[in-house]
Amino acid sequence: MDLRYETGRPAVTVRPALSGDLDAVLAIRNHAIEHGTALWTDTPQSRDEGAAWLGAHLGRGSAYVAEADGSDGSDGSDGSVVGFGVYGPWKDYSGFRHTVENSVYVADGHHGRGIGNALLATLVTSATQAGLHVMIAGIEAGNAASMRLHERHGFEHAGTVREVGTKFGRWLDLTLMRRQLS
Ligand SMILES: CC(C)(COP(=O)(O)OP(=O)(O)OC[C@H]1O[C@@H](n2cnc3c(N)ncnc32)[C@H](O)[C@@H]1OP(=O)(O)O)[C@@H](O)C(=O)NCCC(=O)NCCS
């Protein structure tokens, strides 16, 4: 499933991720780990860890990347991949098998151009087509961009759990958002 979105200049194409996207995806993910509170760890992912993580998604067909049309990497991005989105099991117990959790990350410098919208639309379509029942997003409660993004795609607030995480010397609250798929 390749989908082209007019997201401002340049437009992006969202396509299934490939193993060759590892370095670009890892760079976006590790930037988020080092600079933000979307991922609650201080430890960047090694290339081996990233390959195992991406490989599991590739096996399930649950990883997508946004590729900037006509990009040659001259904007400093690692190739033309400017964002990625994945979904995977929310919890490991078999009773949760119809529920997935998503992650959407857009490269620094490309925010606010509709790329998150394009990626999340693709994840919702893909998971719905795969017959899944519910998609969950776990969002740091101060992340207004992610809240808005998920509201826009039909996610409802399911509650906020206060002070269950910590990073950069402060407590973090986790807001859960839920979308019915089928
Ligand atoms: C959250 C994130 C994925 C959104 O992607 P994006 O490409 O910047 O977002 P889009 O341009 O597609 O905008 C999506 C919606 O959010 C809104 N939005 C974007 N940035 C916003 C901000 N800083 N504050 C409030 N709303 C914002 C947009 O207006 C849009 O809503 P609309 O369609 O009703 O106008 C991106 O900011 C990002 O990668 N952030 C760092 C990692 C992260 O937080 N990931 C989510 C983890 S839960």
Describe the structure.
By secondary structure, the protein is α+β, with helices and mostly antiparallel strands. The chain has one domain (3-180): Gcn5-related N-acetyltransferase (GNAT) (Aminopeptidase). 29% of the residues lie in helices and 34% in strands. It contains four helices and eight strands, in the order E-E-H-H-E-E-E-H-E-H-E-E. The longest helix is centred in the C-terminal third of the chain and has 15 residues, at 115-129. The model has no long low-confidence stretch (mean pLDDT 93). The structure holds coenzyme A (COA). Coenzyme A is lined by residues 32, 36, 38, 104-106, 111-117, 137, 139, 143-146, 148-149, 152. Coenzyme A binds next to strand 5, helix 3, strand 6 and helix 4.
Measured by DSSP, the beta-strand proportion falls in 25-35%
Number of strands: 8
Main-sheet strand order equals 1-2-3-4-5-6-8-7
| CATH class division | Alpha Beta
Order of helices and strands: EEHHEEEHEHEE
How many helical stretches?
4
End-to-end Cα distance, whole Å, is: 19 Å
Ligand kinds: coenzyme A
CATH architecture title = 3-Layer(aba) Sandwich
Radius of gyration: 16 Å
Largest sheet: 8 strands, mixed
Low-confidence stretches: none
